[in-house]
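Quick one: structure for this chain?
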Amino acid sequence: EKNQFSKNKKVKSGILLGKNIETGEKEFWNPFPKSGAINPHALIVGESGAGKTETIRSIVTELAQKGINSIIFDYGQGFSLKDAPSEFLEFAHPIEIKASREGVNINPLKLFPFDINGPINVAQRVADTFQRVYSQIGVQQHSVLRQAIIDLMSDSGIRADAENTWSYDPPWFNDLENQLSLYANNPMNPQRRIAASVASHISTVFVFNTFRKGGKKLSWKNIIEGNGRVYIIQLKGLEHSLERVVTEFLLWNMIGYIESLGPGPLRLFAVLDEAHKLAFDAGSPIEKLLREGRKFGIGSILASQQPEDFSSVAFSNTATKLIFQVGDEDSKISRQIYRKLSGGHSFEEIREIITKLPRGAAYVVSENMGRIIKIRQISERKQLW
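Got it. Here's what it folds into:
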């Protein structure tokens, strides 16, 4: 069954979306390899109040019933457990990790097997992340930041020219602030002003101290290998740019662990709400997830209010799209959807549909087909479980 919209129970592994408004039939999403889509990624667009949050809750709870875990990056507490439906608490078995308040015991300077150049890869990754988030960081600041990380690793005994040292414990992330301070306060260092500049740009990261030894223990082994559970990383309260930094470093850490396991079946979904806060640039962890996630068993669900929040990479690498009511004055999203279809609704019909959808209904596009689906919300699913 290649059609993602498998009818009734023909594909038992499918995730029930809801009822086709035009035909009355049940519609399923099948993100699983071989029997499902070309990739397991989904993109969700819709105005505030259109039903995105409820739909994500329903999908991840269905995934939990299939034994697949999800991790939700929550920036606005839309998935806070204190406001969650009882069905979500009962069937998704959620665990909330208050990263913004309690911090996390994750070290962005950790080396992974895919770091074929050891500490140089780590330095490049961290410097690139900072440069993506803080536009003020130019070429010179990037170079100094990268060198500071290489020197910091070397001082801990981890040298690029000695692979046997790459398994040593890396320095803690906050030591990077001290390293930049040493550069800036050394009158003999010709790049001291550049070091001071880059230190000021990224100082917020160290003020909030989100990555710390005393932070909440985050076990990727448990998150990935658990038997059907939803993890919620709460990031509300962090400064806007810091939300992006923390998300990228957490994603890199997650990707590093999963790649160390090697290729495998679909085993985890990463849910990234409010996608306008994120970067889809080449070399970013989200771009890597979209391009290579299927190989290692990671699916992505990206959600935001406006289609402009997503890059062309996001549109082209998400096999499934759920479009809730959106304004489309320039017909941009209607054109993008229409180009994906091999038949069915006309361009004019698509534009009419997506701008007038009722709450909880979505125009779902996959396998070159479009359906208008009334999403079955979590409160209506209890009898299925």
